[in-house]
Amino acid sequence: MHNQLILIVEDHWEIREVMERYLKREGFRTVNASDGTQGLAHFRKLKPDLVVLDIGLPRQDGFGVLTEIRRQSDTLVIVVTARDDPLDELQCFRIEADDYIIKPFRHPTVVVERVKAVLRRCRGRGASRIIRFENLAVDLDAYTACVHHPSGVKELSLTMSELKLLARMAEFPGRAKERAELVDACFTESPPLEPTINTHRHNLKRKLFDAGAGVHLTTVRGIGYRLDKNHG
Question: What is the pTM of this model?
Answer without folding.
Answer: 0.68
